[in-house]
User: Fold these one by one.
Assistant:
Number 1:
Amino acid sequence: MKLDNAIVLITGANRGIGLEFAKQALARGARKVYAGARNPASVTLPGVEAIQLDVTEPDQVAAAAKRCGDVTILINNAGIANVGGFLPEGSVESARLQMETNFFGPLRLSQAFAPVLAAHGGGAILNVLSIASWINRPLLGVYGATKSAAWALTNGLRHELRAQHTQVVGMHVGFVDTDLTRGIDMPKSTPAEVVTRALDALEAGAEEVLADEVTRQVKRGLSAEPGVYLVAP
Ligand SMILES: NC(=O)c1ccc[n+]([C@@H]2O[C@H](COP(=O)([O-])OP(=O)(O)OC[C@H]3O[C@@H](n4cnc5c(N)ncnc54)[C@H](OP(=O)(O)O)[C@@H]3O)[C@@H](O)[C@H]2O)c1
């Protein structure tokens, strides 16, 4: 799916990776970029159309699908990450909270926009997943579970949307230098690097993008013995 002349909706487009998607979509010739944000006033990038879109609010999702009936590419980027594993007190509440944004958000958006994409020839959905969809560590254990769920959603949607010719791309990526990873002392990619790889993959017709080297290593490790997810951190 080419960006040139496309009409793109990005969730969480006011900052971080979502903002970079908006910049690069414009640079690649998108005809219109809807920048979804909980607070539209926080969208300051020239050339985009800010829309109010909290992905946990069904009414806002429905309103966005009505207003943005010309979308040809949906980028499910909005996400939250709360640190912590499964055993500490509060992990159930943390899981519910993160699932609302990281799983139910893209699920709601995909349901709402599938008919819009179908009406314009199929289009594409790109879901921002994570290396944490595949390996789970206590630092981001609960978060990882939400990204595993989002990966399953991505794989299921791909089959359900095949008949209407919608390209469904899963973007896996390790640490990226954004607000989300502030305070985590690990090697990080820049948003520009990983978004460039993701949009190159989208434009090449791919169904999955491994946006950095560590993610490529982990993917290879899934079928190693022992599997990379069995190896203690
Ligand atoms: N950074 C990383 O290392 C990394 C690695 C793998 C995957 N990811 C994924 O990449 C995506 C973007 O993350 P980021 O690193 O760019 O994080 P970020 O800088 O913290 O930005 C998160 C974005 O999501 C938005 N958001 C959060 N909850 C929302 C909701 N309920 N409705 C709509 N928007 C909401 C935020 O909006 P507000 O400004 O209103 O809070 C913000 O625009 C996420 O899905 C994340 O899980 C990030």
Number 2:
Amino acid sequence: MSSTFIPQRAMFIFAHPDDIEFGSAGTAALWSKNGCDVTYVVLTDGNIGSHERGMTAAKLAQIRREEQTNAANVVGARCLFLGEPDGMLQPTLDLRKKLVRLIRQYKPNVVVCGDPNFYYSDSYINHPDHRAAAQVALEAIFPCADSPLIFPELLEEGYEPHKVNYVYISFGRRESNCYIDISETIDTKLTALKQHKSQMKDWDPEERMRQWTAETGKKVGFKYAEAYHRITLKEIEEETAPEAETPGDEAQRRAQEG
Ligand SMILES: [Zn+2]
């Protein structure tokens, strides 16, 4: 199926700076420009991803947070960092609780995350951080975000249970059950991706990204597309969709700017 659905609030949960840009920033940009409140949650700082002499993990963390924040700004998303260890990410209960807190705070109708499988093609093993990020995101969404009796301290902090309506698992170029037409936001996706200068170096990702998203789009007749496995947890009823109690600074700023 292809989808023209625009959620009111979406949260993207991924392991590293640049993961969102590669897989789903076209979707984030499309939703954002149509009024969706978009939150990125980046679990690690991606701060072991350098072979450069003289680079330190602390310095790289700062660079990559800046690049990721710039990439989020390109699509109009707020960006939160959890500072988990890059390369050693684990789907711990502690991290799950942090995500449950954020889901209850921002009340996304849709959460977009990665794929928790070990492998999904004959030429690729899923990165352990990507697998862990996907697993902990899914475990936070179901059943914890909606269960008042798990993490009771969150209730005491005022975070009421929240049910996510749909989960979009980023599926790259594989067969999927949901295709988002990103023809009008492919340029924004590329601009966002190019913010990750420390990773791109001299490589211009444009040709490769256009090729990948065009291959995906071809399956459903779009010029460019991003693909997902979409899971419906609770069909949305627009008139009863809950309002976020704490939309956050960025949303307030945007609301004030009209
Ligand atoms: Zn990654």
